[in-house]
């Protein structure tokens, strides 16, 4: 017998507000073309179309225009209005290198990867370390599916993400004081947690370049800087990687970076957050409200700075 377990990010259809319903219809149209659209690659299996809709139970969706025009992407600029410059970033062809402690290192074209996973939509809250937040519908697949596909050996303890350095299209790379490329990483346990997600779409459309298109990481219980954009390499490692922001300022941006309203950033409070597109501030939640799914990952890690 098939027993459907309701997960923390699911919302029954009956609880969907009219606001969501409008957006949901628009997304449904986008999702119908999703087989063609995601990854911007022209072809994908029909059954690779998104299989499920996930709804955030607690907050209205951020309007698309705010999520796609207020971005952090230092490879382009330290300003938030980099979206215009990002439009020039080629999205196709795109390949992903998988290496390190895996049985068969390989380079895989994004369209071939998308044929091997089932796409779904998830509405997640996103909390930037700078204390702004949004709630957006990502399309993509669980990071666990990529880990499975990569077939890591038992020595693999971390999954490390390296992102694109394309100096021709990314003017921010000229800021040579930053330790390019942008590197992020998680433990294998975090990578295979049900929430960890690889996004290739946003609002039912291909992931815009300014949001990390064509492929990015989404870790909704961590500060946004962990969710690396424009991934080109995934390495399975025995040792903890030196991540981009940790290399810049370890006291402010640590490896774990789990959201916690009680632990202030050294220069500002993390107790509340501003919802993108408004001046409204709302209380920040432990693990960004996803404690039920992820708190168990950190049991016993008392010596670690889990929230910095
Ligand atoms: N990925 C890369 N490659 N470069 C970046 O500068 N910024 C991070 C993260 N991923 C960043 C990145 C930060 S600080 C945040 S908050 C999110 O992307 C922002 O994602 P968004 O612009 O889609 O909201």
Structural account:
With 308 residues, the protein is α+β, with helices and mostly antiparallel strands. It has a single domain, classed as Oxidoreductase, molybdopterin-binding domain (Sulfite Oxidase, Chain A, domain 2, Alpha-Beta Complex). Helix content is 17%, strand content 21%. The protein starts with 17 loop residues before the first helix and ends in a 14-residue tail after the last helix. Ligand MTE binds next to loops.
- Helical region count? 9
At the first level of CATH, the class is Alpha Beta
What distance lies between the first and last C-alpha atoms, to the nearest angstrom?
A: 44 Å
Name the helix and strand elements from N-terminus to C-terminus, one letter apiece.
HHHHEEHEEHEEHEEEEHEEH
Q: In one word, what is the shape?
A: globular
Q: Beta-strand level of the residues, as a percent range?
A: 15-25%
Radius of gyration: 18 Å
